[in-house]
Specification:
Helices cover 47% and strands 22% of the residues. The protein is an alpha/beta fold. The chain folds into 2 domains: 103 residues, Nucleotidyltransferase, domain 5, CATH 3.30.420; 171 residues, Exopolyphosphatase. Domain 2 (Nucleotidyltransferase, domain 5), CATH 3.30.420.
């Protein structure tokens, strides 16, 4: 059977149409629309009207696509922006008129489903660290067969752009503040990680920041899931890309291979977050995964596979 799941994120709205076969997911169609729903939340804890209108339009379009593809189930879920917004009830009422009752995930649910989705696509054994950098939050999840530790932190590419990277030329003092806040927020996870993980581990990265960096590292002219999924992005290359981004204007960033113009204004903040996590946890390389929370949602919320 074909099912559809819609991720209402802080930066973009995503659609995944897939077929379930046992405990496997076969992707039929993926689509993404940038709406920046979390932009206003980062500023005053409320959705702004332009973002609401773009999101409602995207939801209506995705519903049409899913129905046309004869999906038996169509579900929508939301993450940090919907957890935090003070005017979410007004928004959710409008979403219901489009035809959706939105499942608002807690931070721990978001972390769990990201872990499941990443592990479904990247088959590894032993200690696994999943890093999910979103628009409004970042999930860090550590486990082997089961999750040992997870945290959802209020750090995201849209949130950090609004807070520290509002202009092309971020000052060194602002960059230092951004880095210090990241390391402070992840100190508890960092301490646990270093106590528990004494031998090797595998780091898997999901979310638009990390898949974009994988595309940029390979200088891809077009997004190619086959080249991004499973790609090993090294810390040294993340350092190099961040240095480059800090030296460019948004117009110049738009011309970089592998970087979508829709993400150009938030990629510097996202890259700083990623670099800071790699630095703090001593990560040499991360495997990029194109399977993430959406696949995790299908497996655990729709198929209910243990």
């Amino acid at each position: 059977m074909a099912v559809a799941v819609i991720d209402i994120g802080s930066n973009s709205i995503r659609l995944l149409v897939a077929k379930l076969s046992g405990n496997s997911i076969h992707t039929i169609h993926k689509e993404i629309i940038t709406t920046r729903l979390g932009r206003g939340v980062s500023i005053n804890q409320e959705f702004d009207q332009p973002s609401i209108e773009l999101t409602l339009s995207a939801l209506a379009h995705f519903k049409y696509v899913a129905e046309k593809m004869k999906c038996t189930t169509i579900k929508a879920f939301g993450t940090s922006a919907l957890r935090e917004s003070k005017n979410r009830d007004i928004f959710l009422k409008q979403v219901k008129e489009v035809g959706f009752d939105v499942d608002i995930l807690s931070g721990s649910e978001e972390a769990f489903l990201s872990f499941i989705g990443a592990k479904a696509g990247i088959k590894v054994s032993g200690w696994t660290l999943v890093i999910d950098i979103g628009g409004g939050s970042t999930e860090l999840v550590l486990g082997e067969k089961h999750i040992n530790k997870s945290e959802s932190l209020p750090i995201g590419a849209v949130r950090w752009t609004e807070k520290y990277f509002k202009t092309d030329s971020a000052q060194d003092c602002e960059i230092d503040k951004a880095y210090d806040e990241i390391t402070g927020l992840m100190s508890s996870f960092n301490n646990y990680f270093r106590k528990v993980v004494k031998t090797g581990f595998t780091a898997i990265g999901v979310g638009g920041t990390i898949t974009t960096l994988s595309a940029m590292d390979q200088e891809l002219k077009e997004y190619d899931s086959n080249k991004i999924h499973g790609f090993h992005i090294k810390k040294a290359n993340v350092d190099r890309i961040l240095s480059l981004l800090l030296s460019l204007t948004n117009d110049e960033k738009c011309k970089l291979p592998g970087l979508s113009p829709h993400r150009a204004d938030i990629i510097t903040a996202g890259t700083l977050i990623f670099q800071s996590i790699m630095q703090e946890l001593g990560i040499v390389e991360v495997i990029s995964s194109d399977t993430d929370i959406m696949e995790g949602y299908i497996l655990k919320k729709l198929a209910r596979i243990d």
